[in-house]
TrEMBL record:
Residues 115-422 form the Exostosin GT47 domain. The keyword Cell cycle does not apply. The keyword Transmembrane helix applies. It is found in: Golgi apparatus membrane. Residues 68-88 are annotated as: Disordered. It comes from the Eukaryota. The chain crosses the membrane at residues 20-39. Keywords: Glycosyltransferase, Golgi apparatus, Membrane, Signal-anchor, Transferase, Transmembrane, Transmembrane helix. The gene is LOC115743492. It comes from Rhodamnia argentea. One of its GO terms (cellular component) is Golgi membrane. GO terms for molecular function: glycosyltransferase activity. InterPro entries: Exostosin, Exostosin_GT47. Signal peptide: none annotated. This is Probable arabinosyltransferase ARAD1 isoform X1.
Amino acid sequence: MAGKHLPSSFLPRRFRSPVLLFPLLFLLAFLLYFFLSYLSTTPPASSSTEPETSFLISLEHFLAHRSSSTLSRNPDDTAGPAADDDDDVRKFDDSVFASESERLRGDPYYPLGLPLRVYVYEMPRKFTYDLLLLFWNIYKETSNLTSNGSPVHRLIEQHSVDYWLWADLIAPQSERLLKNVVRVHRQEEADLFYIPFFTTISFFLLEKQQCKALYREALKWVTDQPAWKRSEGRDHILPVHHPWSFKSVRRYMKNAIWLLPDMDSTGNWYKPGQVSLEKDLILPYAPNVDLCDSKCLSDSQSKRTTLLFFRGRLKRNAGGKIRAKLVAELSGAEGVVIQEGSAGDAGKTAAQRGMRRSIFCLSPAGDTPSSARLFDAIVSGCIPVIVSDELELPFEGILDYRKIVLFVSSSDAVQPGWLLTYLRNVSSAQVRRLQNNLAKYSRHFIYSNPARPLGPEDLVWRMMAGKVVNIKLHTRRLQRLVKESRSICTCDCRRANITSPTSLQ
């Protein structure tokens, strides 16, 4: 009957049968209902979650979604391994041998291939979540300043590399964007071990003796682990990004891979034999200013009327004495803006405005060879002019800083008229090349959650991959040496005058 009410040309001949028509109409109605329901419940594509680059916003989300489900697994104690340490280490070494033998047979690129396998210690929450919560609960009231005039919470943000790496590593794999590193849950499968202790937060927010006591507890907890004993810590990653953090006990963990802001060859922060480019890794500070993206860079070109800009503390200690000489040389010169300032909210606004109006940004040494100002300039599209003879740079095995930075020796920079003459002779074509490269390089210095490909977290693991084979070499060599073995003595092997960490207890 239904077919009589439709024009004969509406349906093909094979579908004019009532037996086939009703199921077809029912199917079309169901598909239409499903499609409309999907549209009503699915957010528009523009609302998809983007990686968060704000430390405070990311931390708020992290604490809300991660800590409550994890606290029950992290008892607040410092229990060590079983009583028979030597037996534990021997058993662990056997399991590592079995795992590595299997990988050697099955993976044609082992041990050079990616992804890296990282085991993240589940340390007692006093070393992790409790410190993050402490910061979160008081950062709004943290108006106190350090001796150099910087707000405490701003310094913690600048040295927050320990948070960004840990938050990415422990996120569910389905939420992660990086493919070159995976978290493993069996220690024998790990290439590297990550120690999630927030050394900077504890240094700035705990009372001095309480902080030192916590450092000693963390030291004992980590060095009691069989994996640490097996390699003497050579395959362990320790974030000590602020040069004051973990200072009282870090000499007992000098074999570990330290995540640093620089090498500080002055000897004020790291003692000889504690740090080296072969062992450790330099990471960028988290920028204190907002990213000037491609649109911002295009819009700001006509506004960049200042030749050279600097805002910061004008007098520093140790290696930063060059600042006073530069200020004396440059102050009052045409096209130069020199401002005293710190890293507070008002300072951030002033620094960001100044950098986006300038062609070159001066980056002299501070108390250490490095300065957060370098990375602020990079993400602002302001060509850094580095005057820091002892500076080591992040990811230099991957990035060529000559494409984005001008390097000037201290002796040249302080000569009357030399620096400004040099900058004014930089051709407009070279300025454009440097600025274009800054736009491409800025992504390498923006931390985010989840971590993004080619971001600083990604480059950390690319650099770490180059260290793994050498770490295994030194670990295995250590295990097979006998007392008559000839060894090459360096400042790193003079153990006679170094006290055992157990003496700290």
